[in-house]
């Protein structure tokens, strides 16, 4: 029955694409079969960091030095203002394309599994939570969708029940590092310490800038006796 269901779904999607072809989010050319959100040409042109391959310094490593202990900090893409990555992140966060986060997570997850053996180093994947009011407003947490994609590719459990955001904070955009830290340093709490205790946690967010939000989340996880915390983001500023 599952096979029949997949065939019906595939046929319906093919028919839908025939009459309503989907454009690539970046170049607006029509997506071909098996392409998701971004065409192959644009995907190959995305500014990947390659950090997990040792091709560059670990993104944000110096931003966490002497503050919290993290095992690694990787970003999938470099973020530049008005660049391709910003357009992708904008589509994910503000245009309702939540499934795009899942796709990006799968793409990067496959790289991390085959090129870095990350699936052997992590017990649980956790996304940076949104405040319930922000979650209701947006309808979804973009970091969780990226985390779910990573979870599928890496075959590592994911949960949105590890961390919670206890205070509604203003947007971090435009703030300097000190202001960002003051904005988030007391807003995250581990829901159930036993759930994360002695586990190797992969903490996931959308964009790494100063690292204040991730630093605050990491501090909460470490205080709850997590064995270790590694960080992966969809993108990072240079």
UniProtKB/TrEMBL annotation:
<dbReference type="InterPro" id="IPR051910">
    <property type="entry name" value="ComF/GntX_DNA_util-trans"/>
</dbReference>
<dbReference type="Pfam" id="PF00156">
    <property type="entry name" value="Pribosyltran"/>
</dbReference>
<dbReference type="InterPro" id="IPR029057">
    <property type="entry name" value="PRTase-like"/>
</dbReference>
<protein>
    <submittedName>
        <fullName>ComF family protein</fullName>
    </submittedName>
</protein>
<feature type="domain" description="Phosphoribosyltransferase">
    <location>
        <begin position="182"/>
        <end position="236"/>
    </location>
</feature>
<dbReference type="InterPro" id="IPR000836">
    <property type="entry name" value="PRTase_dom"/>
</dbReference>
<comment type="similarity">
    <text>Belongs to the ComF/GntX family.</text>
</comment>
């Amino acid at each position: 029955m599952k096979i029949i269901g997949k065939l019906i779904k595939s046929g319906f999607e093919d028919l839908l694409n025939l009459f309503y072809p989907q454009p690539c989010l970046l170049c607006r050319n029509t997506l071909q079969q098996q392409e998701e959100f971004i065409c192959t040409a644009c995907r190959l042109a995305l500014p990947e960091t390659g950090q997990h391959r040792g091709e560059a310094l670990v993104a944000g490593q110096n931003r966490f030095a002497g503050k919290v202990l993290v095992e690694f900090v990787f970003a999938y893409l470099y973020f530049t203002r008005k660049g391709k990555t910003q357009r992708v992140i904008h589509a994910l966060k503000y245009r309702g394309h939540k499934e795009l986060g899942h796709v990006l997570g799968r793409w990067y997850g496959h790289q991390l599994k085959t090129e870095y053996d990350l699936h052997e180093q992590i017990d649980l994947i956790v996304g940076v939570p949104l405040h319930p009011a922000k979650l209701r407003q947006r309808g979804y947490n973009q970091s969780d969708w990226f985390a779910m994609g990573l979870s599928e590719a890496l075959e590592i459990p994911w949960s949105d029940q590890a961390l919670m955001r206890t205070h509604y904070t203003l947007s971090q955009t435009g703030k300097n590092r000190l202001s960002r830290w003051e904005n988030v340093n007391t807003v995250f709490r581990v829901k159930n310490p036993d759930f994360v205790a002695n586990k190797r946690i992969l903490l996931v967010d959308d964009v790494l800038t100063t690292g204040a939000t991730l630093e605050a989340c990491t501090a909460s996880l470490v205080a709850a006796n997590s064995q270790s915390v590694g960080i992966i983001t969809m993108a990072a500023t240079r």
